[in-house]
Write a structure and sequence with these properties.
The complex is a heterodimer of chains A (384) and B (346).
Chain A lengths: L13 H19 L15 H9 L18 H13 L8 H14 L2 H12 L5 E4 L15 E5 L2 E12 L6 E7 L12 E7 L5 E6 L8 E12 L10 H7 L1 H6 L8 H11 L5 H29 L5 H25 L11 H16 L6 H11 L4
Parallel strand pairs in A: 1-4
Antiparallel strand pairs in A: 2-3, 3-7, 4-5, 6-7
Helix pairs in contact in A: 1-3, 4-5, 8-9, 8-10, 8-11, 9-10, 10-11, 10-12
Chain B lengths: L2 H15 L2 H8 L5 H9 L5 H5 L9 H13 L6 H13 L10 E2 L7 E7 L2 E12 L6 E6 L2 E6 L3 E4 L9 E14 L6 H33 L1 E2 L2 E2 L4 H29 L4 H27 L10 H11 L6 H15 L4 H6 L2
Parallel strand pairs in B: 1-4
Antiparallel strand pairs in B: 2-3, 3-7, 4-5, 5-7, 6-7, 8-9
Helix pairs in contact in B: 1-5, 5-7, 7-8, 7-9, 7-10, 8-9, 9-10, 9-11
The chains are: A alpha+beta (384), B alpha+beta (346).
């Protein structure tokens, strides 16, 4: 047993397996009705219609209290729904951020009015969020952000620039990390706050940024003297850093951190057929061993989150191992699989492989870079 | 006893009784009799047999696993895993075990030890390569033809050899009448092979924990350019990868033990664990040596007691690629759409 990490074993309770069956049934119905085809990962889809159908099932914000539209379910039940949707390549992108991150943040740190106004809309699959953290000069060094909010009558005036904001052009709200007081050199994490910013507010301009794969899901968002009402402040001014870091366990340990290339692996197994050659079997088996291990680790973190324990270190371990595996899968498939060479022929494996190769660079950057994660682990080891 | 308590007791015993000198002496050919006696008196080799609730079940595996992880952590040079499995097999078949160490064979998938009827009894004939501690064992336990056979030491021709870790791995040949009894239900050569693989997985998991501890300690102690090398990001990033692999190995080894306890898909769990932990062993040993620099390459430093065992154990009872291929065939048999149900069921 290592003293450094804690990965308590976890057995999913029976209600989770019942729920899994319901989710699979739902997915089968959706697919047989031809409502969508499998996407490669959570970032590559956006379907408000799907989000609404999911909301109608009670599968968005499902861990939240009933009075805010939730189902009072456990974090483990949410885990099962999430992993089933991701493994099936369901189009979860519209509500993804609101369900995983923004909603829980508002529930935990927000004001009653914010909860009542926003959370039920999220659970119905009608209200989508984006994350306003990165800026042109602030990536991994988040505390260096310059977007600022100054107090004005009735609220705050927001000025600055956010970048790499996924789905800002489609979302209703951004949770915007900003400075509400100048940098204190003795503690750079002071004076940061989070505002819920309605993206139709005057003074906001959103410019799409095309990524190397040709997709336009991230954006640059410019705030020019944008008025944000006082009741949109999450918690108290100055609480921003505490809020941001407290959510990392949720953001970094989930199945989306090792399943982003799962569709490709599925197609690779299909291509290899029931009697794979030794090389194919070995490649598939190695990836299965890694995924099976990661799922155990990720579930263990989910169990500890359910118990309310601090898991930032373990979450960093899951994300670093998981996202590196996500990157490895396309590299292995391209070498080992029996390939289809024509770019014009419909070929699901080749399509997933193209997606994987082109999007792999983002896997170990989004949500905390590999280097930052390893720094967190090194700190956990007592080296920093 | 809970398995954490077992781990504590075993950890203390090995910490007290397995100094570096004992490991070196054992590698030089001196069997650690006093250590064996202490371990045997503590009941460790009986953990699997004594824990069984019905003949041939694996109810004792949690305790046995806790002991093996500690044995691995301390590089205890004993045929402990082998004797555990052998005594469990004998007990499951209603045969009496000697107090002395035992071993099992074959340790490769396509062994050539064959059991034939000979008059009223059975005769075992064939060869097995790389049998652990055959020379030090009172006998070899073999499962074949639905029988558990105990081959007495006197009936075995041995060509001694050693693993990378200096542990006895002997080539044996047998052609002798043997004592047998029908194996407990569900016990066959494939299960013995899996238990062997799981034992190596657990030994590796324990050794990996210790390598992490040693390496972090060294990085904090060793000063270069005016500060501990652990303060350099280049070293920190490497140590993080090392630690993550140790964490993964610990989780998956424990998961395989848990699956056995719950009558889950044991073949899948063992294949996953041996493949993943073997891979972790390679990565961790590589980084640990790089961080330790020249001192870790000396015989004097004890890092090699652990890393040479990792290099040896990862190859025994199936190298990673063998288990990966088995897993690949399991997955392929389920097909593309069966992959997720397979992964989410274990």
């Amino acid at each position: 047993m290592t003293d450094v990490f804690r990965f308590d074993p976890l057995a999913l309770p029976p209600e989770c397996e019942t729920l899994r069956g319901e989710v699979r049934q739902f997915i089968a119905e959706e697919k047989s009705a031809g409502r969508w085809r499998s996407e490669s990962d959570f970032a590559s889809s956006y379907s408000p219609e799907f989000s609404k159908r999911l909301g109608a099932r009670g599968w968005i914000g499902m861990t939240w209290p009933k009075k805010y539209g939730g189902q009072d379910k456990t974090f483990l039940e949410r885990y099962v729904v999430t992993e089933e949707l991701l493994a099936a390549g369901a189009p979860v992108g519209a509500h993804w951020v609101a369900d995983r991150q923004s909603g829980p943040l508002i529930l935990r740190f927000g004001k009653d009015g914010q909860r009542e106004e926003i959370l039920p809309r999220i659970t119905r699959g009608e209200c989508y969020f984006c994350i306003g953290m990165s800026e042109p000069d602030s990536g991994s060094d988040l505390a260096s952000i310059r977007t600022k909010a100054v107090p004005v009558e009735g609220g705050w005036e927001l000025s600055g620039r956010k970048i790499w904001t996924s789905n800002a052009h489609k979302a209703h709200f951004m949770i915007c990390l900003c400075r509400t007081s100048p940098v204190d050199v003795s503690d750079r994490h002071k004076g940061l706050s989070q505002l819920i910013v309605e993206l139709i507010s005057p003074g906001i301009s959103i410019r799409p940024i095309k990524n190397l794969a040709g997709a336009e899901h991230f954006n640059e968002v410019l705030f020019e003297n944008v008025f944000v009402p006082a009741d949109r402040m999450i918690g108290e001014p100055g609480d921003g850093w505490k809020q941001v870091t407290s959510e990392l366990g949720y953001e970094r340990s989930g199945p989306e951190r090792f399943l982003s290339s799962f569709r490709l692996l599925t197609e690779f197994v299909r291509r290899a057929g029931n009697t794979p050659d030794a090389r194919e079997a070995e490649a598939i088996g190695r990836l299965v061993a890694h995924l099976a291990t990661l799922r155990r680790m990720s579930l263990s973190v989910a169990g500890m989150l359910q118990k309310g324990e601090m898991v930032n270190l373990e979450a960093a371990v899951v994300k670093d191992l998981g996202t590196n595996l996500e990157k490895e899968i396309p590299e292995i498939v391209r070498l080992v699989a029996k390939r289809g060479r024509s770019p014009n022929k419909a070929d699901l494996m080749e399509e997933a492989l193209r997606y994987g190769v082109l999007n792999a660079p983002s896997f170990t950057i989004r949500g905390g870079t590999r280097e930052i994660l390893r720094g967190i682990v090194a700190r956990g080891l007592g080296l920093r | 006893m809970s398995d954490t308590l077992v781990a504590e007791v075993a950890g203390k015993l090995f910490a007290n009784l397995v100094p570096s000198k004992l490991v070196n002496d054992a590698e030089a050919g001196e069997f650690p009799d006093a250590l064996w006696k202490a371990v045997n008196d503590a009941g460790f080799p009986d953990a699997l047999a004594a824990g069984a609730e019905a003949p041939g079940d694996l109810a004792g595996l949690a305790d046995a696993a806790a002991i093996l992880r500690e044995a691995g952590r301390h590089a205890a040079p004993l045929p402990l895993a082998e004797t555990m499995i052998a005594r469990w097999l004998l007990a499951g078949a209603g045969l009496k075990s000697p107090e002395a160490p035992l071993t099992v064979a074959p340790v490769e998938r396509d062994g050539s030890l064959l059991l034939h009827r000979a008059g009223k009894g059975w005769r075992l004939a064939g060869r097995a390569a790389g049998v652990p501690w055959a020379q030090q064992a009172a006998g070899i336990v073999v499962v074949a033809q639905g029988q558990v056979a105990l081959v007495a030491a006197k009936s075995i021709d041995i060509r001694p050899g050693k693993s990378l870790a200096g542990e006895p791995r002997d080539d044996v040949s047998v052609d002798a009448e043997v004592e047998t009894a029908p194996a407990a239900a569900g016990v066959d050569a494939a299960l013995v092979y899996r238990l062997g693989a799981l034992s190596r997985t657990l030994l590796m998991a324990g050794a990996l924990d210790e390598v992490l501890k040693l390496t972090v300690q060294y990085a904090n102690d060793r000063v270069q350019f005016g500060r501990p090398i652990g303060k350099f990001q280049a070293i920190q990033q490497q140590l993080a990868v090392l630690a993550e692999n140790v964490a993964a190995a610990g989780v998956v080894a424990a998961a395989a033990v848990e699956v056995a306890g719950k009558q889950g898909d044991f073949p899948f769990a063992v294949a996953v664990a041996k493949a993943r932990v073997g891979e972790a062993a390679s990565k961790v040993a590589e980084i640990a040596h790089q961080v330790h620099g020249a001192i870790g390459f000396t015989h004097e430093h004890r890092l090699h007691h652990l890393t040479r065992r990792l290099w040896s154990w990862r190859d025994e009872f199936g190298v990673e690629s063998e288990w990966q291929q088995e897993l690949g065939r399991i997955a392929a048999a389920r097909g593309g759409d069966g992959l997720w149900p397979l992964l989410s069921a274990w």
